[in-house]
Amino acid sequence: MPRAKSDKDRKIFVLDTSVILYAHNSIMNFAEHDVVIPITVLEELDQFKKGNDTKNFEAREFIRLLDKLSKDNMIHNWTPLNGKTKGNFRVLMNPENNINANIVFGEEKNDHKILNAALHLKETEKNRKVILVSKDINLRLKAKSLDIYAEDYETGKIKNISELENTGRFVLDGVDPEMINQLYDKHHVEAKLILGTRKRKANAYYILKSDKNSVLAYFNAEDNTLERVDKKLAYNIKPKNAEQTFALHAILNPRVKLVSIQGVAGTGKTLLALAGALEQRREYKQVFLARPIVPLSNKDIGYLPGDIKSKLNPYMEPLWDNLKFIQNQFKESDKEYQKITELVNQEKLVIQPLAYIRGRSLSNIFFIVDEAQNLTPHEIKTIISRAGENTKIVFTGDIFQIDTPYLDSQSNGLSYLIDRVKDHPLYSHIKLEKGERSELANLANDLL
Description:
This protein is an alpha/beta fold. It folds into three domains: about 5-150, Rossmann fold (3-Layer(aba) Sandwich), CATH 3.40.50; about 160-230, Archaeosine Trna-guanine Transglycosylase, Chain: A, domain 4 (Roll), CATH 2.30.130; about 240-445, Rossmann fold (3-Layer(aba) Sandwich). Helix content is about 35%, strand content about 20%. The chain is built from 16 helices and 17 strands. It has helices spanning about 15-20, 40-50, 55-70, 100-105, 110-125, 135-145, 175-185, 190-195, 240-250, 270-280, 310-325, 335-345, 355, 375-385, 415-420, 440-445; strands at about 10-15, 35-40, 80, 90, 130-135, 150, 170, 190, 205-210, 215-220, 225-230, 260-265, 285-290, 350-355, 365-370, 390-395, 425-430. Helix 2 (about 40-50) packs across helix 3, helix 2 (about 40-50) runs antiparallel to helix 5 and helix 10 (about 270-280) packs across helix 11 (about 310-325).
């Protein structure tokens, strides 16, 4: 954010509740500009302060931060934020305006009270630019209809999402056929003989092509070599294309402790992660497979009938489907089939909502997080920070298929992870492009 040249250029940012629940320290990220918190936001945060979800943590932390910043000051007055380069903040009580959003939109609701706060500042601070900041697209549109500047909270957003498309996998044409032959014969070659002076990313995968043949390869940064990647079975699941082969290699690679797999529905993300986990079950105490609960049709899970298990079953069913698919590769009399049933019964393999996993110590665990695009960056960080010794974490998801209203392809946790951790020696990322579920599913992805 460019610095203001004078006090007149200092803007006033009005924060919506959605911004606070996304990042409790957002109030500190507006450079020397001033920040206003409508009293309605504090009222809404009061409803979120109890609970174990991330939004509850963010609400509590923001309330503590505001209390610390205010000290002995009355927070309805301008109060300095920490640091000489920061502006001021204040909490704005429900004001009287010439224009009332409740009347304009024909309904009294909290969003309209927040709009009224921005309208009041626009009327009283005529020499300064007032901007409403919200993760709620509809609220931003309402603001613009009232001639209020409105924008998304940009801090932490991935600026160039297209760069994530090329992270982790590369195609090289015109490779010396002799080098490819050496990879087939010796399994590995010195990286510089093929990559030359090209920038090398740790745990990157390559499709190497010559005029005569091609080979799949993996860059081992520790040995500075390119290693041949072969298709391998994982609990009788065989990769069907180059990207799936790379993904399974990363899942099975003991050097890699953190894996992300991006791809549209039907590309095999969860299936490969689960098959790889079962293949390595002896290396870990437990296998956890979890996903965040995103209620459908804006209804909380409490709306669903039955006990808590009955309420959550619909959300977990896709994970059980993948497990059943792997199990059905074998006959019921086969020991592999029976082993999966045994692992479930003994809770060596656990499928649960992600909220049930939070707070647990993740030591000696193979942890798969499905639908990771529905997590915030803070949630991703929280999960990884709980990893103990001999733990491997695999995140799967599609950064363009967001099911939560305040996230998008640039601000969700999976995009954040791919952007921030790329090229780390403990991390590997693969994008799956080809759908392998069925020809009908591919038709839907490609044409509908």
